[in-house]
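Lab notebook page, bench 4
Experiment: in silico fold of construct C2
Operator: M.H.
Input chain length: 517 residues
Purpose: comparison with the prior construct
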Amino acid sequence: MNPSRLVVLLVAISFGALAARAQSSNACSDLIGLKPVGVEITKAELVPAGKTVPPPFPGATSIGPLPAHCRVDGVINRRKGVDGQEFGIGFAVALPAPEAWNGDFMMQGGGGGNGIVAYPAGANYAGDRTALSRGFAVASTDTGHKAKTGPFDFSFMRDQQAYLDFAFLANAEVAGAAKQIIARYYAKPASYSYFVGCSTGGREGMILSQRYPAVFNGIVSGDPAMRTGLSNLAIAQWIPVAYNQAAPKDASGKPEIDKFLSDQDRRLFMDALMKKCDAKDGVADGMIFDPVGCEFDPAVLVCKGGQTEGCIAGEKVAAIKKAFAGPKNAYGTQVYPGFLYDAGIAGKNGVPGLLALGKNGLFGPYTTATELDVDKAALHASDPLVEPGSTNLSTFSKDGGKLIFFHGDSDPWFSPLDTLGYYKSLPAVNGGSEKVAEWSRMFLVPGMGHCGGGPALDHFDMLSAVVNWVEKGIAPDFVIATGPAFPGRSRPLCAYPKHAQYVGTGDPQDARNFRCQ
């Protein structure tokens, strides 16, 4: 036999044996013996079809039922750190049955301070079915530490390596390990790799595109926690201080921020805002689809000449305008972007909005101060180790990478204008706007709070959008959105700078009767 033909035959037999092994019932449990460098596989077991994952946090919905899959758990670089505490990058990978695998890999981003290994189902921003149910192999990670006191436990930062893992290292490490597990289980590597995340997960997606441009083919970055320190300066200090200057005082003289605006004040404000901007998209529907073009000035509500009804006190209006304009330093330089006037800023059903802060903030009660040294506060608010500020994505884009951003217009934690500002800065170093549009798109989501909620259509399939772009070359000019806030309604979310506009005829509840303009 020709030696070269013999080699081909042996290779074919070898891969055939691997494929048969992948189909066997022992293939999952056998993964416990896989020993990539620095990786410890702690569990590998089959999960029967029908599993439902409990809600990850109060108010969330359960996930499932899920299809049959092999779940693999592991730890990367297990070690002892500060105070003898055990650290290591925990992760999990869910592998659909070989006959159900679509050939792709999807990694889901984290949230808050991470610290937990969420179930690797790929449930968010994937449409009506989880990524796992759609045939993706899915991975998740705690990014190198275990949360002890809740989702915003950042005590791990005392350990330098744990901080580095959280800041940028862990996701790339887990992606590498997951790809090895996938190749072993299916006897072939994944064809394409995707990352989808929101908030901290959105920041993680940006980090991956900037520091690890070859790891993922497509990335979806939602409501990214781009500059946490500066956003916290805006939300926890700048806005409360502005409101405190016009809020009533308690018996001890401290401002009561929860009484800054009365319910009537908020109704007046929102009625005036919606009257000005709601119908600009062709139909008055309780949503503002062109918030950037919404030229609303709260000054129209100021009480004049002894007026007490149907208006808002001038000092309150001035405080709102100052708050929404965003923090500036002593020289008038914008430190962090302002916020949009949008349908969800008044909050609803206990969910805070920028016009309804309540007494307590994200990390505790809001400040009662009436003055703020922005220069001093901003000096300590930036952390380049964590912040995804690089705009040179030439390697990512040259290799065919696609990057999708989305951000809720009523996000009370991170300004959508910060994400938009980053997106608008990409053309300067990446060949211009037309070139950037070939590999990146930005979508604003009217009414949506942080990663969901609000008077919004917050249910949309960004995973399919990025997959179709990477694998079929179909750029997402729009993505269809629905949501429980408006039953029976659908709208296109249009790629910036376009927005959804009613064509003037047909059912205004139907996305097909809107165009992007």
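Observations: Residues 40-50+63-224+384-482 form a domain with the Rossmann fold fold (CATH 3.40.50.1820). The chain is about 30% helix and 15% strand.
Next step: discuss at group meeting.
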